[in-house]
Amino acid sequence: MNSNRLLPVDEARQRMLAEIQPLGAEPVPLAQAPGRVLAEDVAARRDQPPFPASAMDGYAVRAADCPGRLRVVGESAAGHGYVGEVGPGEAVRIFTGAAVPAGCDAIVIQEDARRDGNEVETPPAPAGQHLRPAGGDFRAADVLVSAGTRIDPWFLSLVASAGRAELQVHRKPRVALLSTGEEIVEAPGEPGPFQIYDSGAPGLSAMIAGWGGEVRRARPVRDELDAVIEALRGAEADLVVTIGGASVGDHDLVRKAAEALGVRFQVESVNVRPGKPTFFGVLGDGRPLLGLPGNPASAFVCAQMFLHPILNGMQGAPTDPRTIPAKLELDLPANGPREHWMRAKLSYAAGEARVRPYRDQDSSLVSVFAASNALLRRAAGAPAATAGEVVEVLPLSRA
To answer: Which residues contact 189 (CB under 8 A, 6 or more apart)?
Structure first.
């Protein structure tokens, strides 16, 4: 028996990832960093805040002088601090975020103070009141964001606060996406009586872009071996992904074409539903090749299982799918011999995740996948499950 066939999902994924290495790094300005994966640790250049700062509008005082009537000797605003040291019986008008003058160790908020000309009357003010210490957010040399982190707006704000204008990120994977099959036609072309519109490639293109890849999509390839060979040979990319032609039918030619190009198969099929024909190998010139099934729903499920982790691996990001527990909302029969990733609807009520799989799991139904926001994992040979049981769910990124 071929040890590369009908592999469990987790083993198939690990075999694929064993052939994947992070791509090289390149510098990008902050404005282009969202969605990219860091290739370096980002450390703080200085303390934040770099000085003790006021958390409120009011008066900077010496705690030892309060309560008392103090002389206002100046003002400290954000970006324009008070120069000099505050002495006994003195106070400085201060605003939120401004540097606390030397000699002061507390802030009296303006609602608690009574101003009278150049004097202000203050209540008791314990040391440290409404004061943000220097380095209270982070210290110089602290690692703020680690390599392998995908930059989002929150991380972007953090690295900007550290004074970075440019980041080293992994290069975007170039992905050649090839559709095969005489039965598909691209819109706005007119399909023949036995053809359908290509829905797999547009959806996968969007997935790849959303996962940080750079899509290089070719026109559908006709079902001729030489045509498929030439399409694979000419695909200049870090990763080649094919849609359709992955099975063993007379018109499924991708495997034969890959063999003509010296492929070394690591996965020839996966014990999964949907997506059993999925395969992975490395072409003779070193380019990895992922073959996805032609049915769009099968291709989309297997893209979540395998393509997403591969792209993460190329970008130096974590590769394990992040599943969550959720309560099942309906009964399910015993599962068959293949691991089943069911399209499902995930919801939250009273702080609890709940999941309802769709009844019709036909792999050709794009409408069911479009309505789904999660995949429910059923192990091979799993017994019947009843509503209320906790199951494993992979949330899908849906806007």
So the answer is: none
Q: Each residue of 28-42: b (16+ CB within 10 Å) or e?
A: beeeebeebbbbeeb
Mean of pLDDT over the chain: 92
pLDDT tens, residue by residue, 270-284: 999 999 999 999 999
CA atoms within 13 A on the CB side of 136: 13
Q: Return the CA Rg of the chain.
A: 30
pLDDT at 357 over 60: yes
Q: Does residue 157 sit in helix, strand or coil?
A: helix
- Per 3-state DSSP, the chain is made up of helix, strand and coil in percentages (nearest 5) of 20, 35, 45
| E strand spans, 64-187 | 68-76, 90-94, 106-109, 114-116, 119-122, 131-132, 143-145, 166-170, 174-179, 184-185
d(CA 90, CA 85): 10
Helix, strand or coil, per DSSP, at residue 26: strand
- Check whether the bond before 88 is cis (ω within 30° of 0): no
- Which tokens go with 4? 């590369």
Nearest to 235 by CA among 286, 197, 279: 286
Residue 356 in tokens:
């309802």
Cis peptide before 34 (omega within 30 of 0): no
CA 75 to CA 91: how far, in whole Å? 9
Task: Write the DSSP string, 334-396.
Answer: PP-SSEEEEEEEEEEETTEEEEEE-S---TT-HHHHHH-SEEEEE-TTPPPB-TT-EEEEEE-
* Rounded Cα gap, residues 37 and 258, in angstroms: 31
Rounded CA gap, 61 and 76, in Å? 12
Question: 35, 313 in Cβ contact below 8 A?
Answer: no
CB 38 within 8 A of CB 166: no
The CA distance from 142 to 140, in Å, is 6
* pLDDT at site 2: 64
Cα–Cα distance measured from residue 323 to residue 341, given in angstroms and rounded to the nearest whole number: 12
**pTM of the complete model:** 0.88
DSSP state of 149: P
